[in-house]
Amino acid sequence: MASLGDIGVGAAINILSAFAFFIAFAILRLQPFNDRVYFPKWYLKGIRGSPTHSGAFVSKFVNLDFRTYLRFLNWMPAALRMPELELIDHAGLDSAVYIRIYLLGLKIFVPLTVFAFSILVPVNWTGGTLEHIKDLTFSDIDKLSISNIASGSNRFWAHLVMAYAFSFWTCYVLYKEYKIIASMRLHFLASENRRPDQFTVVVRNVPPDPDESVSEHVEHFFCVNHPDHYLTHQVVYNANKLAKLVDKKKGWQNWLDYYQNKHARNPAKRPSTKTGFLGLWGKSVDAIDYCAAEIEKLCKEEVIERERVVSDVKAIMPVAFVSFKTRWGAAVCAQTQQSSNPTLWLTEWAPEPRDVYWANLSIPFVELTIRRLIMAVTLFFLTFFFMIPITFVQSLANLEGIEKVVPFLKVIIEMPVVKSFIQGFLPGIVLKIFLIFLPTILMTMSKIEGHTSLSALERTSAGKYYLFVLVNVFLGSIITGTAFQQLHKFIHQSATDIPVTIGESIPMKATFFITYIMVDGWAGVAAEILRLKPLIMFHIKNTFLVKTEYDRQQAMDPGSLEFASYEPRIQLYFLLGLVYSVVTPTLLPFIIVFFSLAYIVFRHQIINVYNQQYESGAAFWPDVHGRIITAMIISQLLLMGLMSAKGAAQSTPLLIVLPILTIWFHRFCKSRFEPAFVKFPLQDAMVKDTLEQATEPSLNLKGYLQDAYVHPVFKGGGFERPPAIDEEEINPLVPTKRTSRRSTPGHSRYGSEVGSEIDP
Amino acid sequence: MASLGDIGVGAAINILSAFAFFIAFAILRLQPFNDRVYFPKWYLKGIRGSPTHSGAFVSKFVNLDFRTYLRFLNWMPAALRMPELELIDHAGLDSAVYIRIYLLGLKIFVPLTVFAFSILVPVNWTGGTLEHIKDLTFSDIDKLSISNIASGSNRFWAHLVMAYAFSFWTCYVLYKEYKIIASMRLHFLASENRRPDQFTVVVRNVPPDPDESVSEHVEHFFCVNHPDHYLTHQVVYNANKLAKLVDKKKGWQNWLDYYQNKHARNPAKRPSTKTGFLGLWGKSVDAIDYCAAEIEKLCKEEVIERERVVSDVKAIMPVAFVSFKTRWGAAVCAQTQQSSNPTLWLTEWAPEPRDVYWANLSIPFVELTIRRLIMAVTLFFLTFFFMIPITFVQSLANLEGIEKVVPFLKVIIEMPVVKSFIQGFLPGIVLKIFLIFLPTILMTMSKIEGHTSLSALERTSAGKYYLFVLVNVFLGSIITGTAFQQLHKFIHQSATDIPVTIGESIPMKATFFITYIMVDGWAGVAAEILRLKPLIMFHIKNTFLVKTEYDRQQAMDPGSLEFASYEPRIQLYFLLGLVYSVVTPTLLPFIIVFFSLAYIVFRHQIINVYNQQYESGAAFWPDVHGRIITAMIISQLLLMGLMSAKGAAQSTPLLIVLPILTIWFHRFCKSRFEPAFVKFPLQDAMVKDTLEQATEPSLNLKGYLQDAYVHPVFKGGGFERPPAIDEEEINPLVPTKRTSRRSTPGHSRYGSEVGSEIDP
């Protein structure tokens, strides 16, 4: 086991590497030509624009003012300075609430650390058990942990009382946070501008009617059943094939741009390509002509397909977006059951247009339940048996296997360096590749489950990922062996033995998790700010594809917060903190450093970088809350197991009360706050309606809503590009400079903070 | 273990005792003076009335036509003859669906029995394992059961396949039944006459307002938020104390009647009573004057209390019944969230006025969740630890204890006969008393949980009783020992071992359960039809209290189906049937006899006796369905355990699929049908509204709804008795005869069937 000194060295290394990331970030982001990578959000908002031609040519690319480098951590206070209301306005409620998860971590763990260090650490330190055991090697960390208390000692009362105190504190903070976020959500919804989804309900499983089209049927049904409120509706076309064609055309367009750029830079030689797969083999042709021809062909196909979709009855899906005259009418329709057959005329709030996942809208009810069953079974196998295919692939990916498939590489592979590399790294790489693709796999599973909005897809993927992390990272690290082996062990163990088995090994794994927090948490967060992948991608695209300002916007692509994979990882830290708060308090400061660092970095990122694809109004909070509750219950059960393993089984009746109270607290919170995230209260809808009628009595709502829910491929101009603006744009490396800073007063305060660092 | 012969003798005894009950019933019910005990429903419907004075005096009391006694089982076909639609019309949907549970049992178990006997019994019989084991005593029943198959034999494939077949058949029947009952419910709701609860929503947790009374606040809130639909509302007074006074006065009134009757029969002597407790000691006074004075006193108190309730602001609870102009408006309000704080303005469908449980209407939200937590913990302790207080009381209720408390009884107790009686029966009696009071205890717990309608109270009590039966009757009989000992054993066993432990002992307990089915099931059902307790109570009341026709109506009190204790007992038979269908098919015919007998008896009872207090429209079906699913899953898990105990562990992967599919089936049914039992579809509401507007355009709905939801103590005349009609009514034994038979054509067919047996 690692001693305190070892941990100190590890911490120093990780802190230094984090600093290295920060310095790299400081240098890179001050270079004007990286500006679009590190501040894309401001470009999208129109606050930073295209650069002007003033100044030396070099200074368009490289920042030569060395004073700015000295203040390389300046972005941290800057990130913290924007007040929350402005942040919500700037980045949306989803992002603002997302970073509150880190803040919640601080709120929970800072007092826990203070109490644990002032009460539990002295109690453990003076326990003096480990010193009396001769043949045991132990570290200082163990002396500070519960391991140092003699079996059956009265000192366990301290841990028991602290377990209660910590649970109550965590519940208190969770309750307050849930309350705040529920009111933030309601306030956000109430203060929002008019949005199409406020008036619209998505209706699924419209029953077929022999005499009427889907559109007529929908209109008649809602005219009859919501006579005072129905306004208009929009049927949904199955445009999946058309969307594919559009995507394909876009790909060819990119190639055409690339070849045109190449030709423009070297007019003497026309670029050529091959017609085969990926341009690797086949007949050699003139690239520009070939691409243009392909685009032409696709254009024709697209026109045909577009006509087919619009005219074909079968392309109309039994789904419609129904809009109402008032928010009240929409709220009523979304919350009530329409037909006596509860699988027909299913209504729910329409996601906002950007949030709709079009491909899933037409899945019928029975198919949905079957899909969910299959995905639940798949998830179970993926979580517990994922090692089986990995091991299989690893067994294939050995030297003999590779030599068989590609015999001509034998000479290279047999070289000692290469050989040892393959033998050493290949198994690890296979696993790593799987882990990289895991979020995508889980997202695909969620898509198969048939959720109809991107936000729901992200939420369910996050739930799946959390299960995976819990079983394979947390339990897998504590009980060595694959998840399948654990499962096998657990089902052959009694219900009381499982917490004991895990609880016993908990204190021994503290140093491992401290290292994990530093490597995965600290370094991960520091790497996050560097945005290495988007940086490289941007420069590649900028070099080869960008011709117009629009292209550069596209290349910039800030991406959005990947809630589905980030949030479960945060939950791991909550779990570790709660489990170790009583057992090994030494771990807590590392958690606190993680949360503070992550809070600052992600606050910076959502202010400057990420551009959310949609706005769900913090609809994910019930999940976050539920998972922290799960972590609490796990920690309480494991403490119970540890206590009985340590000969303090008489504490079990007292400790069993904790999970019961926690579950009750969860149910209480659920009934108290969750409706705010699922339903829309009629009172609020009525207030907004009344206000709108008073301020805008002559509003043409029908016109406003007419085209709100049209499939993106039907929206005019979505795939038409504006022509090139001027020669400057062909320049691959684009210096940028804020031109319209201070243009919008709402953002001025923050804008000037950032600006002051770079302006000469 | 009992042999087939023993079982046969047991069956014969039980069949004979059942016949004895039926004969006793046949004799008793043909006596005219018992008519009101066995056919009260027809009196309540007004189809049977007071007797006329024709015929001999004796024949008013005793049926002398001996021919009628010969046809003593005639009521059975008569009970089956009423068609279901007429039954719903006559007894309500709740009762009609309740007896469908027995029918469902037949639908499930008759094909199961046929298949089990044609496939599994031959397979078991020729298994030939038991014969080869020398030192084992075994019975023929065991030879027919799975015990006769050698460990690890290939014959288990037959059981595996049958387990699949049985599960699929059960699911199929359940699905069809759920579908039928959902459509019956919808049809019932749609064809119902106008009822106040169709237009009314109960609003709980009205927030306090400093400037307005509750009534004004409710009116303003709904005028604003449901402007087009709000009609009127009725606040709820806390009249619990007043209700108590009214009850008390009723008790005194009964005593007054009793003494007046006594005096009338013996005018020479005025009856006297004592003022102390129960009239046992204290000053001797004239009984009639004393009772009259007490009633006078209570009348005055009542008037004061009545005025206080109406005028005191504090007596108005933050609850209101809000009525709407249309069913559509009520359906909308009941299904939507009103306020942004989801714990205020809670709306739900109002139960029908008879179904309201007034005392629980004012419990605030936070208190509700705490009450539910406490009751959940209490239920857990009651289920698993109920033997502890029982044992404690049993230890007190021994000879020494009794002698200490009542020393003057020492002489009697010390007599050998009494002594052995006390020692032998007292512990059993303590347990029996507890079991008799158990439904009341569970109902009290449900009341503490705060449900606001009688139907919900019954449903939740049934759930609690089911848990108790499952743990203490089913598991308790299989694994001997108290529930607490089982619990202790289970939590120290691995998850895979529990089904094995239980599964192993399953086949051994088959004979016990067969006896149980005969004694508890067959005899219990036969005893049900005799109505011994109501019979005695009626004659006591009729002798001492009855002066008027109204009094006799009161004394008749048919009661209603005790869903809360009957339904969980049926569930036990479902559980036994499903568990033993594969293991010991011999048990199945006994289950079938139970279900057929119970079906006929209860069909007779709901036609002739029970008068439901309320009508919930079969709202209990999702619970019934869910419990049968639970029984299926338990049977599948136990079969899995049994199989691995029998060395056929390789079948586990195949068997684990069954519970997964069953759970999925449950979820599917839940989403497919449950909304029909919880929500009211807008389409149906709109249809009824439109129809009503067309047929009764000038309906004064406000007047109709004005007093619908007034606390029963405020309803005029509820406690005022009509004066005595004529001297005939003083006669304690009242001969009755149908006078208005055939008066309502709807019931004529059945009425004449019953009548033909008694009429001379």
From TrEMBL, chains A, B:
<keyword id="KW-0407">Ion channel</keyword>
<feature type="transmembrane region" description="Helical">
    <location>
        <begin position="6"/>
        <end position="28"/>
    </location>
</feature>
<feature type="transmembrane region" description="Helical">
    <location>
        <begin position="465"/>
        <end position="484"/>
    </location>
</feature>
<feature type="domain" description="CSC1/OSCA1-like 7TM region">
    <location>
        <begin position="371"/>
        <end position="643"/>
    </location>
</feature>
<feature type="region of interest" description="Disordered">
    <location>
        <begin position="720"/>
        <end position="760"/>
    </location>
</feature>
<keyword id="KW-0472">Membrane</keyword>
<dbReference type="InterPro" id="IPR027815">
    <property type="entry name" value="CSC1/OSCA1-like_cyt"/>
</dbReference>
<dbReference type="InterPro" id="IPR045122">
    <property type="entry name" value="Csc1-like"/>
</dbReference>
<feature type="transmembrane region" description="Helical">
    <location>
        <begin position="647"/>
        <end position="665"/>
    </location>
</feature>
<keyword id="KW-0406">Ion transport</keyword>
<feature type="transmembrane region" description="Helical">
    <location>
        <begin position="425"/>
        <end position="444"/>
    </location>
</feature>
<feature type="domain" description="CSC1/OSCA1-like cytosolic">
    <location>
        <begin position="198"/>
        <end position="360"/>
    </location>
</feature>
<keyword id="KW-1133">Transmembrane helix</keyword>
<protein>
    <submittedName>
        <fullName>Uncharacterized protein</fullName>
    </submittedName>
</protein>
<dbReference type="GO" id="GO:0005886">
    <property type="term" value="C:plasma membrane"/>
</dbReference>
<feature type="transmembrane region" description="Helical">
    <location>
        <begin position="510"/>
        <end position="530"/>
    </location>
</feature>
<dbReference type="Pfam" id="PF02714">
    <property type="entry name" value="RSN1_7TM"/>
</dbReference>
<feature type="transmembrane region" description="Helical">
    <location>
        <begin position="101"/>
        <end position="121"/>
    </location>
</feature>
<feature type="transmembrane region" description="Helical">
    <location>
        <begin position="156"/>
        <end position="175"/>
    </location>
</feature>
<dbReference type="Pfam" id="PF13967">
    <property type="entry name" value="RSN1_TM"/>
</dbReference>
<dbReference type="InterPro" id="IPR003864">
    <property type="entry name" value="CSC1/OSCA1-like_7TM"/>
</dbReference>
<comment type="similarity">
    <text>Belongs to the CSC1 (TC 1.A.17) family.</text>
</comment>
<feature type="transmembrane region" description="Helical">
    <location>
        <begin position="373"/>
        <end position="397"/>
    </location>
</feature>
<dbReference type="Pfam" id="PF14703">
    <property type="entry name" value="PHM7_cyt"/>
</dbReference>
<keyword id="KW-0813">Transport</keyword>
<keyword id="KW-0812">Transmembrane</keyword>
<dbReference type="InterPro" id="IPR032880">
    <property type="entry name" value="CSC1/OSCA1-like_N"/>
</dbReference>
<feature type="transmembrane region" description="Helical">
    <location>
        <begin position="572"/>
        <end position="602"/>
    </location>
</feature>
<dbReference type="GO" id="GO:0005227">
    <property type="term" value="F:calcium-activated cation channel activity"/>
</dbReference>
<feature type="domain" description="CSC1/OSCA1-like N-terminal transmembrane">
    <location>
        <begin position="9"/>
        <end position="177"/>
    </location>
</feature>
